[in-house]
Structures are given as structure tokens and as C-alpha cells.
Amino acid sequence: MKKILCPTDFSHTAMKAVDYAAEIAIRAGAHLSLLHVVHLPIVDTSETALVASELLGEQMRDAEGRLKELCMQTSEKYSSKSSAGFTCDYILREALLTDITEHLTKNEGYDLIVLGTTGVGNALEELLIGSNAEAILEQVNCPVLAVPAAAEAPVLNKVVYASDYAEGDKEALQYVFEIAKLFNATVDVVHVVKEATTESAQKAETFWSQMQQAFPGYPLQFKEVTNKSRQQGLIDYYEANHASLLAILRREKGFLRELFSQSLAERMTYKATVPLLVLQSKKNK
């Protein structure tokens, strides 16, 4: 991990995401960039175009001042925590958030996006900067970490990885381990079945054997959970084991909408405390 991108709208929720992004950057020796976007309103006459241009200029000047201040405050807060040095800069653009994040991850080497989530409403994809989470996940090829405003301090102790015994689990777990090792956290791989059967037990045994061979010596545990609801099984395990991060592999378009139904989103945003790491499979890249 070399470069982390953290979009911000200067809200309290955004500040929580900045804390997570900065803590990861320090531990990984990565560079952090704070991103703010400004939108030019649609205009239909020369008169409204002039007003819009003046408004845009004012918004850009205000945003740049706030970005400079936030960048300086973040550097002052975290530089003392890093013996190797902590670097932070900012990016200000007149653009759509989805477009600029796609460009930066594809062309500028950013390999992790850290976003703040509102925890308001009942949809996981509601972000502090609007309903952009699903759109961003559709367009970028790097992991996205969604951080709720009321999440605990950015110190991870246990990461839960939700497995479907998918082809991409091995690659995804490699990244999860990289994050976990930064915090000396353990990793629990969890698979939820509606009913325990001989076939499910055999699949679990095969999968666990493959993971042990792939990751010898890692602080890794595997658990197959029985629950009529896959979503509820994940929630119950996460809460019962006092985990601090949930990681999932997004394998197809619209995966979050399918996996995280409205009822699950309501549970996952219970007190808005569950940070969610969404990983991209090779098929989505």
C-alpha cells in the first residue's frame, strides 16, 4: 500500500474517516491525500452562468482554505506518531466524486479509498457526500473502507472476513492480512449456512485446509455459522466476538445491494459502529 485517498466534506463523519486513513497510512508507510470536490450547477443562460461561475470561485477558495487547514492539522496530529515520517496533501477538483476517484485510482496510484458513512437512514450506500458508495464501488478497482461516524477509535483488534468459498477469497484474504498485520489484529473467516449438513461440513473442511496451506503461521481462525439468515449470522458473529472491522469480497455488480438488504443495513448501522472493507475481485477489475 503506497497511497490512500480520503474524500471529505469537512463534516464530523468525514473527520472519523480521516483518522482511520491517517492511522493506516502511518502504519503502512503510505501517503495520504485528502480530496474535496465542488460541483458547478447546471446553467441555461449567460446571466445564470456568470452567477454560477462567481459562486464556484467562492466555493473553491473556501474549500481550499479548509483543505489546507485540515491537511496541516492532520500532519501535526499524526507526524509525531511516525518515526518514518508522515506525508499528507490535498486535492481540490471541480468534478463528480465518482469520476475523480476512478481517475485517481486508475492513473495516480491510489490503492485504498477511505470514506465516511452517515449511519443515517436505512441504506448502507448512503455516504456523507451523497449516495455515491455503490457508484464508486462500480467504478474503482481498489479496496474501499467505509467508516461510520460513531465507529470506535482506529485501532483494530479483530477482522471478520465474510467468505462464500469464492475463487477470489485467497487474494482478498491476502489484502485483509496486510491490513490486520498493521494493527497486530487477528482474522476470523466466517461462512454462514442456513443448515449444517454433511456436504457443508466437507466444504468447510476443504476450504479451511486450503487456507491453512495458503497462509501458514497467520493468526487465522475459521468458523462456519448456522443461521437461517446469512446477514444475521454475520451480524451476530461480529458482535459476539467484539470485532472491529468487517471485510467482504464484492464479486459482481450490485453485490452490496443484494447482500446488504435494507434490514441488514439497519442492523449493520446499529449505533453506526461497523467499519466495512469492500474488496474487489479480479472479475470486477
Structure description:
This protein has 285 residues and is an alpha/beta fold. It folds into two domains: 3-148, 3-Layer(aba) Sandwich (Rossmann fold); 158-284, Rossmann fold, CATH 3.40.50. It has helices at residues 12-28, 46-79, 97-107, 133-139, 169-182, 198-214, 230-240, 255-259, 262-268; strands at 3-7, 31-38, 88-94, 112-117, 144-148, 158-162, 186-193, 220-226, 245-250, 276-280. The longest helix is centred in the N-terminal third of the chain and has 34 residues, at 46-79. It is elongated, with a radius of gyration of 20 Å.
Features:
Rossmann fold, single chain, alpha/beta, 22% strand, 9 helices, 285 residues, elongated, 10-stranded mixed beta sheet
- The chain-level mean pLDDT equals 81
Annotated CATH architecture of the largest domain: 3-Layer(aba) Sandwich
Helices, by number, come to 9
The total number of structural domains is 2
How large is the radius of gyration? 20 Å
Summarize it.
The chain has 285 residues and is of the alpha/beta class.
Helix-strand blueprint:
Layout: E1 3-7, H1 12-28, E2 31-38, H2 46-79, E3 88-94, H3 97-107, E4 112-117, H4 133-139, E5 144-148, E6 158-162, H5 169-182, E7 186-193, H6 198-214, E8 220-226, H7 230-240, E9 245-250, H8 255-259, H9 262-268, E10 276-280
Parallel strand pairs: 1-2, 1-4, 2-3, 4-5, 6-7, 6-9, 7-8, 9-10
Antiparallel strand pairs: 5-10
